[in-house]
Amino acid sequence: MNFFTLLAILFGFSFCSLFIGNGPVVVQALHKIYPELQSLENGNDTTEIKQLHRTGFHFQPHRHWMNGPNGPMYFKGIYHLFYQYNPEGAVWGNIVWAHSISKDLINWKSLKPALSPSKPFDINGCWSGSATVLPDLKPVILYTGIDSQNRQVQNYAIPANLSDPHLTEWVKPDNNPIVDPGTEVNSSAFRDPSTAWLSLNGHWNTIIGSRSEQTGMAYLYRSRDFLNWTKVEQPLHSVPNTGMWECPDFYPVSHFGRFGLDTSVMGNWFKHVLKVSLEMTRYEYYTLGKYYPMTDKYVPDNTSADGWSGLRYDYGNFYASKSFYDPMKKRRVLWGWANESDSVQDDVSKGWAGIQAIPRMVWLDPNGKQLLQWPVMELNRLRRKIVMMLNQKLVKGQIVEIKGITAAQADVEVIFSFSSLDNAEAFDPSWVDAQAVCSQLGSTAQGGVGPFGLLTLASENLEEFTPVFFRIFKAEANHVVLMCSDARSSSLKDGLYKPTFAGFVDIDLSSKKLSLRSLIDHSVIESFGGGGKTCITSRVYPTKAVFGDAHLHVFNNGTESITVEYLSAWSMRSAWVN
């Protein structure tokens, strides 16, 4: 446990450590208000919007601050994305529920905010929550309001006109709040109600993130009419020493195939996923397990850790995620927020902050021990010019450029193969922290089998580059695959957070092949290793490798020769986000 985490535990603050210059700078991670940096008049901001580092095919509003997704849903042929948004500046504050709609999850049209602070039960903020579509096709929003006493209370909102497919207007009835923390619950740590599910006994259920001292928990509430809610005696689940649980998500995944399940499905042919966002670490983790509706308990499997070191959707810059069931395509879709890694002043200067990661399909790995993720198929419609590479051998120290595409805005799929694992380095059993291993070894330190992978957003002379790569080790009983996305060489600019992100890939290497897909979009690189077993999102801010001056390479720094068996790299069109 580092010093800053200890401070957070002792004093209840939320920190992230940024390494700026020669030492660590502690910055409050979220919920810090900068009144001096916000527009005085909503809509009258004249800040010039900087195009450098803006994404081309990721979702982001035209200007200002955005953080976590709220209650994404599908309703009458239209996808709805609600998200936390500051209409008055590129920093956190003045939070409303912004609202955009789409037919394909890629191209978006913005509408007026669905929810804004206006009543005693949310006058100080409309924070995160979820959407639930009731059986009679009536959508309901559950959200956390910050009331006139600065307590976190749970409210609901309903569409003003169900015949409007865009659901432009939302009404917040005066019988809010429908869940009050009372005296039993910490009213400053009680937020983010989940999508509700219907039990066989006719009760609706939702979970709300909280903590008791440093025990993180998901309180379970139930209702017969969606209006009168009662707290179940015990939380659905809790874990000591994990701190505040934000943005909890709870849903079923089938044992078989990639198809998704409605949140209310009950039976014995699936597992449940419980995901929480840890305020203390700014990472998310999830477990797979069994839900017992008769006793209102969730019991995780023993196949992964239940805590900080547990499984993650994404081992990089990915937080406050929210999933929804898409009944049209029978899939579960996951949204997540990728915050900026530059400074507050940088965000104010460029006039915007925050993007959403590409929506992902999520389903259960056939091994039953983890989830798999993959970008939604609609993204492929943005692919245009393609460059391919087949059976390219890479010897130790070799770098080969992939020419002919717009390397700053690209979709790359590659299969690497190797003839032998005999040269794999020995794995130290103490290496339980993948990020620390990646920081220690990096992409330039020679290995046995690896490091090999991609050099993304590279400048012409490699003064800047972000490597995404694998390194394979030999453990006592098997081989261990490390996947890294290393931002330390991503930019010549000082004052940026340039971390190494990494995760281990639980994969069978009997085929002697590893796959990698990277979505490269100016200031973000989303990578999917081993067919979506391990995912890493990095935010980077190159100064030279921008627009037409960005380059893409494959490389190998291991003694074992690597073959690029198959590579397809597409230039990507920009999505339409209005």
From TrEMBL:
Residue ranges annotated for the Glycosyl hydrolase family 32 N-terminal domain, each copy included: 58-375
Signal peptide: 1-18
Main localization, broad class: other
Catalytic activity annotation: Hydrolysis of terminal non-reducing beta-D-fructofuranoside residues in beta-D-fructofuranosides
MF-aspect GO terms: beta-fructofuranosidase activity
Residue ranges of domain Glycosyl hydrolase family 32 C-terminal in the record: 401-571
GO CC annotation, single: vacuole
A Gene Ontology BP annotation from the UniProt entry: carbohydrate metabolic process
CDD domains: GH32_Fruct1-like
UniProt keyword list: Glycosidase, Hydrolase, Signal, Vacuole
Tagged with keyword Heme: no
Subcellular location: Vacuole
One Pfam family of this chain: Glyco_hydro_32N
PANTHER family: BETA-FRUCTOFURANOSIDASE, INSOLUBLE ISOENZYME CWINV1-RELATED
Family: Belongs to the glycosyl hydrolase 32 family.
Record-given protein name: Beta-fructofuranosidase, insoluble isoenzyme 1-like
Native species: Cucurbita maxima
